[in-house]
Amino acid sequence: MTNVVVISGGGTGIGFASAVYFARKGAQLVLLGRRAHILTDAAKRLAAELPAAPAALCLTGDLSAAESAEGVVGRIREAFTHVDVLVNAAGGSVVMQASDAQYADGLAGVARRWTDNFRLNVLSTVLLTEGLRDRLRSPGGRILFVSSIAAYRGSVQGCYAAAKAALHPYTYDLATALGPKGITVNTVAPGYIRDTEFFGEKLSDERRETLIAQTMNKRPGTPEDVANTIGWLASPEASHVTGQIIQVNGGAERGR
Question: Which keywords does the record carry (predicted)?
Fold first, then answer.
């Protein structure tokens, strides 16, 4: 039976690397994102690299907005009777993505910055997950969240780190609720991951070297490092692992 794997943020970075991982396993992919051209390009790349894999279904929408999320979830529920794996890879830091001027107007800017980070990283995950939780295969379903090392070590302005940290108690609560059904819920917490939109070109060479130096294995992480961990957590071999935050940051979370 072909596994159905839904991946938010599936067009780039960790999300796309996860898509490649599951496509190699012959899964039916559902790629979600806000930018249709990014998803279309991702689907073409997958088809070119893995022509034997089922064609990916691409759905666009803003998962942080209830009405848009309802539309996306509705289309998934219409297309599939169940979901085997849900990977919530969508998210990011609005401060890194936006101009400084966008959040510069006093407390209004502070409120907007914190609210936007919460919407991008928490609501986008919660709305999709809650919309599909009753469609997860039982037993055997898997839910994965992508947090960050920032949830443990901060993110300078706090808002991104706080948003990612909010996923941790949600992981525990959902794992407790779904565990009796044989569904696991886990989170991965990456550190510096090269070749992603999150870091992009804004990271100075000095900052990049500092982040690498903080790891125990003295190398940057790759999207594949995170995807491989997600893939294992989604496998039958990890059926007794749930409610966990798995560090994928070369030991940098330990503060070296």
Answer: Oxidoreductase
